[in-house]
Amino acid sequence: MRTADRNVFTLICLSSILCVNILSMAYGKNVDGAEPPTIQNSKLKIQNSPPSPPPLRVAIVGMVHGHVSGFFEQSLSRPDIQVVGIYEPDRQLSSRYQKQFHLDQALLFTNLEQMLQQARPQAVLVYTNTFDHRKVVEVCARHGIHVMVEKPLAVGMEDALAIARAAQQGKIHVLVNYETTWYRSNRAAFDLVHEHAIGQIRKVVVHDGHRGPKEIDVPPEFLAWLTDPKLNGGGALFDFGCYGADLMTWLMDGQRPLTVTAVTQTFKPDIYPAVDDEATIILTYPKAQAIIQASWNWPFNRKDLEVYGQTGYAITVGSNDIRIRQGSNAEQQVAAKPLPPPYNDSLTYLQAVLSGQVQDVGLSSLETNLVVMEILDAARRSAASGKTVRLPPKPSNATSQHP
Q: Is-contact 380 275, C-beta < 8 A?
C-alpha cells in the first residue's frame, strides 16, 4: 500500500473510532466499557444543577403605606417571588398603582377573604395602617397564611398580644420588617458587642427620623394615617421610636427594660395637631441605659446607632460603615462586612424562615417585637402622665409564637 493510501486509511480508522466513542458516551459507556469522562467543577464535568425552588407566592394587603411603592419598584420582578393577589379596598388608590407599575387587573381585589381564598398565597406582605395589622393577622391566621407587617407590630400592647395569640392558634409566622434590620452596620455593632470587643453595654443612643412626613412629601393616603393617633399609635414616638426599641432589645438579647420614661412634644402643631412630632425614650436595665431619639424634626434623614461598652464604642455611619474605638486606640472608620443570605433582605429572610432554613429570632421576630410594643406602650403612658413607668417582672399574659 502506498504511503498516501496508508495515511487516508489511518484517518478513516481514527474518524470511525472517534464516532464510536462519541455515540458510546451518549449512552454512558466508552468503547472499552469504561465510564465516559465528565467535567467536574471547572475541570471535566457537566452536571445538571438542582432545580430552583418554586417562587414564594405572596399577596399584598393594603396600599396606604408608602413602603408598598418600594416593594413594587424593587421586588415585583424578582424570580423568587410571585405576586398572586393584591387587596386594597380603595379602588382609586389601587388604580393609581396599577397604572404606575402595570399591574394585572386580575390581581386586584377589594375583599380580603376573597383574595386569600382565590389567590392562595403562602404569605402576605402588609402595607395597611398600623391599626389594621391585628385584623389582617387574625384573618390570615384562620387561613394558615404567614404574615410580614411593616414596623411597628401594632398600635398598642393589647393588639400585639392578640396578634401573638392568633399566630399561635393559626400556627403561622408573623414577622415585622424594619429597614434597619438589613443594615450591615447594625450587624457589625451587634457582633462587636457579642464578641466582647467593646465590653459589656453601658449606654446605647439611637437616632431615627427625618424632617417630617409632610415635609418629605409622603403620599396623601400615607400622611392621613401617620398623623392619626388611633391608626398610627402616636406620631414620631411610634413611627421612629420603634426602631430604637427593636435594636436595643436585640442588642440586649431580648431582655426587657426595668423602666421606661418618655417625653413627647409637638413643635409643629399647625402641621401635626393630633400627634407628637418629637419624642425621647429612656430605658433602664440593671447595668445599661438606652436613649431613643425619635423625631420628625431632624434637618435630614437619619437612622444611626451609638453603642458604648466598658472598653470601647461602636457608632454606625449610615447602613454600611461603622466607627470603632477600643481602649486607648484611636478611632477608626471601617466598612462593615456584607450580610450573607438570607440575612441581607426581608424577602429572602422570609423565604428562609418559611422553608425552615433559619429560625425567626432577633429583629424581625414576634418575640422581640412583643418587647418593642411593651416599650412603646409604656412610653406613651409615661409621656401622658409625666411619670416613669416600671415594667412588671414578666407580662402576665404574654404569648410566644410557635408555628
A: no
Name every residue whose Cβ is closer than 8 Å to that of residue 350 and which is 6 or more positions away in sequence. Answer: 56, 123, 146, 148, 175
Euclidean distance between CA atoms 207 and 204, whole angstroms? 10
- Measure Cα distances from 1 to 5, 7, 318 in Å: 6, 10, 84
pLDDT by 10s per residue, the chain, length 403: 444 444 444 444 444 444 444 444 444 444 344 444 433 444 434 456 667 889 999 999 999 999 999 999 999 999 999 999 999 999 999 999 999 999 999 999 999 999 999 999 999 999 999 999 999 999 999 999 999 999 999 999 999 999 999 999 999 999 999 999 999 999 999 999 999 999 999 999 999 999 999 999 999 999 999 999 999 999 999 999 999 999 999 999 999 999 999 999 999 999 999 999 999 999 999 999 999 999 999 999 999 999 999 999 999 999 999 999 999 999 999 999 999 999 999 999 999 999 999 999 999 999 999 999 999 999 999 999 999 999 998 755 555 544 5
Beta bridge partners of 304: 207
**Torsion angle (degrees, nearest 10) of CA 214, 217, 222, 225:** 0
CA 209, 178, 184, 257 torsion: positive or negative?
positive
SS (H, E, C) 98-158: HHHHCCCHHHEECCHHHHHHHHCCCEEEECCCHHHHHHHHHHHHHHCCEEEEECCCCCCHH
User: What is the total residue count of the chain?
Assistant: 403
* Distance separating alpha carbons of residues 368 and 253, to the nearest angstrom: 9
Strand partners, 321: 317, 335
CB neighbourhood size of 178 (10 A) = 23
- The helix/strand/coil state of 94 is helix
- Rounded CA-CA distance 19/17 in Å is 5
